[in-house]
Amino acid sequence: MARAAATWCDGQIIDLEAIESVTGSILTGVSDGWAGEAADEFARAVSSLRARASDSRETLHVASKAYTGYADTVDQIAREAVPLREALSVAQGVVNGGAVTFRSEEEWQAQFQAVLDANRVIETTTAALVDLAERRAEADAVLARTRG
After folding, report:
1. Which residue has the higher pLDDT, 138 or 94?
2. What is the C-alpha separation between 94 and 33, in angstroms, rounded?
3. CA distance 111 to 133
4. How far is C-alpha 71 from the geometric centre of its chain's CA atoms?
5. pLDDT at residue 148 greater than cutoff 80
6. % of residues, the chain, pLDDT over 70
7. Which of 59, 87, 93, 105 has a Cα-to-Cα distance from 69 of 20 to 30 A?
8. What is the mean pLDDT of residues 101-125?
9. Which residue has the higher pLDDT, 113 or 147?
10. Dihedral sign (CA 72, 78, 81, 82)
């Protein structure tokens, strides 16, 4: 959605640049061949339109950049989350693995070590996922604070 918003902003920027160009040409034409109070009033109105178009273009440029940065951050977080979720799922499977039967002390030790290792993986991947969630929340906050 953020990329679509950035694309929309970029399209509006192109339209506003066209307005700035056309109004610039109009102002040149007015100054070249039209004089008097009506010409001055018309030039002020066109100048005002040009200034508003310029301000809007700048605002949309800031918004487009913010949306693109936000989308890049969210995409990166999603890529980083995939292996963490997979590791977490595997580790949870080991810990919740069901009935265990041991034929020897070595098998018991191996299973016990596997559960300990899986618990460490759960702990570290959970912490990493929490960090990703915090990064996402910060990206949300940065986007919300963006003003053009």
Report:
1. 138
2. 85
3. 32
4. 3
5. no
6. 96
7. 87
8. 87
9. 113
10. negative
DSSP assignment of 54-122, as one string? HHHHHHHHHHHHHHHHHHHHHHHHHHHHHHHHHHHHHHHHHHT------SSHHHHHHHHHHHHHHHHHH
Give the amino acid at 29.
Answer: G
> CB of 60 within 8 A of CB of 148?
yes
Rounded distance between C-alpha atoms, residue 92 and residue 119, angstroms: 8
> Residue 127 and residue 72: Cα distance in Å, rounded?
22
8-state DSSP, 140: H
Confidence of residue 33 (pLDDT cuts 50, 70, 90): confident
Beta carbons within 8 Å of 9's beta carbon, 6+ residues apart: 60, 61, 63, 64, 67
Contact 43, 80 (CB under 8 A): no
Mean pLDDT value of segment 3-29: 94
In the block, tokens 């949309």 appear at 60
The more confidently predicted of residues 110 and 130 is 130
Alpha carbon distance 132, 142 (integer Å): 15
Give 117's contacts (C-beta < 8 A, 6+ positions apart).
Answer: 91, 94
Indicate the Cα dihedral angle 71, 77, 81, 82, nearest 10°. 40
